[in-house]
Amino acid sequence: MGKSTSADRPDLSYKEIYDMVYENLEDYNKPTVHRNRHIDMYINQFILENKHDTILDVGCGAGHLLRKYHDQGLNITGIEVSTICCNKYLSGLNYYNIDVIDFANSVENKYDVLYCKGTLEHIRFEDLDLFLKACKKLSNRCLFGIANHVSWVNGIRLHVIRRNVPWWLYTIAQHFKVITEIGPERRSKYYIIKGENSE
After folding, report:
1. Domain boundaries, the chain
2. What is residue 174's DSSP assignment?
3. What 3-state class would DSSP assign to 22?
4. Can you name the residues that pair with 146 across neighbouring β-strands?
């Protein structure tokens, strides 16, 4: 995925796009009240209901959840493709500056749980299958938070996939045996879907 590009800027890689975003926008991907109330609650529940010796945060961005769980003493690792984001926000945390496909190809162990918040909608259609395969390889228990609204930065469309819940359920079901839509309500602009496989 390191050579993959944005649907709207085929001349730029994911890393180049998000380095630009994090270099120019101080408040990008920062937590909001809405996110904390309606999204992070489900991630908290997901982590608490599972054995969580090891946790992977895929597309951790500025790392507000990564830092929160790190400060609680949990064994959590972040994955972030933007070097500028890592340098600005992730100091003192356990993270890899790499995309998830390359990371999955470089490790043998599985994590107890994986969550991926606000990342799938940024992935091009042609890369999505490989992205989900990487998540499946990294953990048997995955939670996906998917935004379904427009996001533009400097004329570049960041949310390149906008689809409804049935489409996402079908797409994720190609990689996980048990699929559960756990909230919020479908009229929300954010979906949360859990994918699980056998040990």
Report:
1. 14-196
2. T
3. helix
4. 191
- In the chain, the amino acid numbered 3 is K
Q: Is pLDDT above 70 for 38?
A: no
The dihedral of CA 182, 187, 191, 195: what is its sign?
Answer: positive
Tell me, yes or no, if the pTM score tops 0.85: yes
- Tell me, what's the pLDDT at 37? 59
**pLDDT tens figures, 159-191:** 999 999 999 999 999 999 998 988 665 556 788
Say which residue the tokens 């042609």 belong to. Answer: 126
48 contacts: CB under 8 Å, gap ≥ 6: none
What does the CA dihedral 146, 2, 90, 121 come to, rounded to 10 degrees? -10
In CATH terms, the superfamily for domain 14-196 is: Vaccinia Virus protein VP39 (3.40.50.150)
Q: Hey, what amino acid is at 173?
A: A
